[in-house]
């Protein structure tokens, strides 16, 4: 039951529920430079291959993506669930599908990274009251470049951008040049990000050389909460005052067409949220909920019996469970009890067995 | 008889015993060699009831001569000790008379006839009045009973060996469920005080007796010194199962550990889901150790996926809450289990409440055990 031969996401259907499919090694670096959960990355490194389980939420997402028409304003999907139930993994699954289908993927690994632990806050050159985050922006641009190599030369700018007195990017230049400039000129990287997003928004639904745009945001509730950043006079910074956040919010608004927005809620990185909260209302807050509304909620649950079975067999197959007792029925029952079929808990448990 | 009389008579008897015993011993020692003893001169002194009829008159002269030369020798050696050694005839006569008077007094004391008071009677009465070292506790044979029993068993074994009927697997005494008598109980049984050392020796000897293969011969003797142990689990109160509307069996249990109190509602035919205070147990107890504590009673009885649990817990920290819930789960499970399983649970320690609590802080110390930093000056 564990490994299905199909690496083609398009062919995956409900028959494959619970089975693992292998992501080709070449895709890992291109599609997921920054998106995967760190523990999963370690697992990939250990097993020398990346296997993702086909689960119900991901399949649902993919089927929606297949059927939706892209003339209408973008649909927004929100993955929510208990901590450790596999939201990020489902998101990555969907992103992989999108990239294999040839979409342009805008994957923001964790929006919380932009609202906390920022060492440098520059006042924005573009807008006086806003703040820039050069490091985060340049990192993201670099990853974006690795993800969407082939698009960068195809998309042409429709507007002229002036960065400083001497630097400017002309109309008609490829997007790649813009991105390169953002990576090299760290100071204006946040504005570059804003520009990139705007361009993509404009061009996504276009008929000539049109492409589908997938915006995948992990931890979207970070965009509307509070930040831990402080201005120089020790007053807290609101998320709107950050350029990156501001631009991203504009992306998530459904005033453009030709793509989809897939978002996950995340409690792990969220600030000032109780650990038991996992529902959209609690984590998004009033403001966030209003801006995300309307959206399609996709609940991610814990492993079902079949899924647990397949995960267990996968670990056995890879000789991950070394303890002889874990191979018995009783050991399996113990694992079920101790982890309560929570994927991350199970993974942590098996790590030292 | 008045006390003073007894005392004086005792004093006289003391004197006379000196004369009685020493001659007796010496006669015994030297009769073979035909030695003359100092005491045999007493015979010369007349009508004593000594049964020394063997010593004949022919000894008398020798004794006298001997005695004379003895006294001469003594006189030469030790001028200071001249007094008692010079035994003149009147002295001897007087001593004999005193001895006889003492003997009559002794007979009166013992309530016997003075006329027919033999030497054997004298011996017995003196032994009665002055207990000698032979009857001292230290001179008694230690645990004679037990030792004789052990010897008897060994004798039996040897007999069997002689008849070639000796087998290693003879019927053994069943010692399960009984214990040796405690020291207090043994003292009660034997109506005498026993020291710890003696008690230890007693147990040692009994164990040695039991180590012999044929100890079943002396089973009754051994069982007299053993007491049955009561089965502890019979003291456990097992509540009967309760059934709710849909016919599903459920039971409750509560447990406490170190200021944490927990209650559990255990429902049968469930799927193994547990909710604590309304939340999932994986979120309530993120630590693996606490979840393992919850798992232990179910895993021990191998009923992991059978029950549904609704728990509520308050107080204490996460470890003590987990311990309290574990006790509560084991208690709730009792009504679903059979007697033998209850006993195994009890032996596993699942049903014993943990008595450890926070130790009191003492004055003059920083904590319960930690003292203040010691400064030399």
From TrEMBL, chain A:
The keyword Ribonucleoprotein applies. Its main location: mitochondrion. The gene is DAP3. It comes from the Eukaryota. It comes from Oncorhynchus tshawytscha. It is found in: Mitochondrion. This is Small ribosomal subunit protein mS29. SUPFAM superfamilies: P-loop containing nucleoside triphosphate hydrolases. InterPro entries: P-loop_NTPase (IPR027417), Ribosomal_mS29 (IPR019368), Ribosomal_mS29_met (IPR008092).
From TrEMBL, chain B:
One of its GO terms (biological process) is translation. Keywords: Mitochondrion, Ribonucleoprotein, Ribosomal protein, Transit peptide. It comes from Oncorhynchus tshawytscha. Its main location: mitochondrion. Residues 348-377 are annotated as: Disordered. InterPro entries: Ribosomal_Su5_D2-typ_SF (IPR020568), Ribosomal_uS9 (IPR000754), Ribosomal_uS9_bac/plastid (IPR023035), Ribsml_uS5_D2-typ_fold_subgr (IPR014721). SUPFAM superfamilies: Ribosomal protein S5 domain 2-like. It holds the Pfam family Ribosomal_S9. GO terms for molecular function: RNA binding; structural constituent of ribosome. GO terms for cellular component: mitochondrial inner membrane; mitochondrial small ribosomal subunit. This is Small ribosomal subunit protein uS9m. It is found in: Mitochondrion. Belongs to the universal ribosomal protein uS9 family.
């Amino acid at each position: 039951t564990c490994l299905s031969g199909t690496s083609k996401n398009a062919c995956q259907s409900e028959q494959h529920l619970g089975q693992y499919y292998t992501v080709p090694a070449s895709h890992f670096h291109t599609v997921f430079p920054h998106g995967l959960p760190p523990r999963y990355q370690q697992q990939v490194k250990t097993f020398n291959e990346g296997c993702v389980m086909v689960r119900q939420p991901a399949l649902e997402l993919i089927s929606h993506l297949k059927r939706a028409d892209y003339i209408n304003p973008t649909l927004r999907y929100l993955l929510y669930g208990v901590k450790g139930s596999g939201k990020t993994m489902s998101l990555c699954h969907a992103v992989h599908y999108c990239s294999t289908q040839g979409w342009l993927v805008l994957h923001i690994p964790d929006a919380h990274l932009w609202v906390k632990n920022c060492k440098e806050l520059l006042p924005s050159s573009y807008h006086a009251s806003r703040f820039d985050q050069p490091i985060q922006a340049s990192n993201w641009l670099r990853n974006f470049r690795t993800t969407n190599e082939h698009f960068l030369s195809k998309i042409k700018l429709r507007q002229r951008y002036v960065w400083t007195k001497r630097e400017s990017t002309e109309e008609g230049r490829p997007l790649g040049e813009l991105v390169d400039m953002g990576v090299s000129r760290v100071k204006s990287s946040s504005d570059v990000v804003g520009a990139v997003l705007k361009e993509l928004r404009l061009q996504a639904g276009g008929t000539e050389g049109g492409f589908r745009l997938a915006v995948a945001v992990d931890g979207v509730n970070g965009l509307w909460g509070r930040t831990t950043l402080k201005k120089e006079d020790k007053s807290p910074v609101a998320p709107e005052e950050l350029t990156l956040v501001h631009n991203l919010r504009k992306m998530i608004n459904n005033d453009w067409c030709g793509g989809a927005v897939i978002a996950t809620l995340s409690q792990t990185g969220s600030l000032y949220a109780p650990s038991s909260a996992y529902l959209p209302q609690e984590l998004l807050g009033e403001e966030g909920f209003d801006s995300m509304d309307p959206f399609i909620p996709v609940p991610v649950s814990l492993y079902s019996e079949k899924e647990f079975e397949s995960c267990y067999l996968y670990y056995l197959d890879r000789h991950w469970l070394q303890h002889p007792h874990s191979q018995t029925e009783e050991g399996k029952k113990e694992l079920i009890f101790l982890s309560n079929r929570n994927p991350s808990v199970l993974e942590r448990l098996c790590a030292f067995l | 008889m008045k006390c003073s009389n007894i005392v004086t008579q005792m004093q006289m008897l003391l004197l006379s015993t000196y004369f009685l015993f020493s001659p007796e011993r010496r006669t015994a020692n030297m009769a073979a060699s035909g030695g003359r003893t100092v005491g045999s001169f007493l015979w010369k002194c007349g009508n004593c009831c000594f049964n020394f009829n063997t010593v004949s008159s022919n000894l008398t002269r020798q004794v006298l001569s001997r005695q004379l030369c003895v006294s001469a020798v003594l006189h030469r050696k030790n001028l200071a000790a001249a007094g008692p050694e010079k035994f003149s005839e009147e002295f001897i006569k007087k001593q004999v008379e005193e001895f006889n008077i003492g003997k009559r007094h002794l007979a009166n004391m013992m309530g016997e006839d003075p006329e027919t008071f033999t030497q054997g009677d004298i011996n017995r009465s003196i032994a009665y009045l002055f207990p000698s070292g032979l009857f001292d506790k230290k001179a008694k044979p230690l645990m004679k009973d037990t030792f004789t029993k052990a010897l008897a068993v060994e004798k039996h074994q040897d007999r069997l060996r002689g008849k070639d009927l000796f087998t290693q697997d003879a019927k053994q005494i069943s010692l399960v469920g009984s214990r040796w008598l405690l020291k207090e109980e043994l003292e009660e049984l034997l109506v005498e005080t026993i020291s710890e050392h003696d008690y230890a020796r007693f147990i040692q000897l009994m164990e040695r007796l039991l180590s012999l293969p044929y100890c079943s011969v002396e089973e009754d003797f051994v069982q007299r010194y053993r007491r049955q142990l009561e089965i502890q689990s019979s003291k456990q109160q097992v509540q009967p199962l309760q059934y709710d509307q849909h016919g599903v069996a459920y039971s409750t249990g509560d447990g406490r550990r170190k200021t944490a109190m927990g209650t559990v509602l255990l429902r049968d035919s469930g799927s193994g889901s547990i909710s604590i205070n309304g939340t999932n147990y994986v979120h309530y107890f993120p630590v693996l150790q606490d979840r393992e504590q919850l798992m232990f009673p179910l895993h021990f009885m191998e009923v992991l996926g059978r029950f549904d649990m609704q728990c509520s817990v308050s107080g204490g920290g996460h470890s003590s809450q987990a311990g309290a819930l574990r006790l509560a789960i084991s208690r709730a499970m009792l009504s679903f289990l059979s007697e033998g399983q209850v006993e195994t649970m009890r032996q596993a320690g699942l049903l014993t409440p943990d008595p450890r609590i926070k130790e009191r802080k003492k004055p003059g110390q920083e904590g319960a055990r930690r003292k203040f930093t010691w400064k030399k000056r």
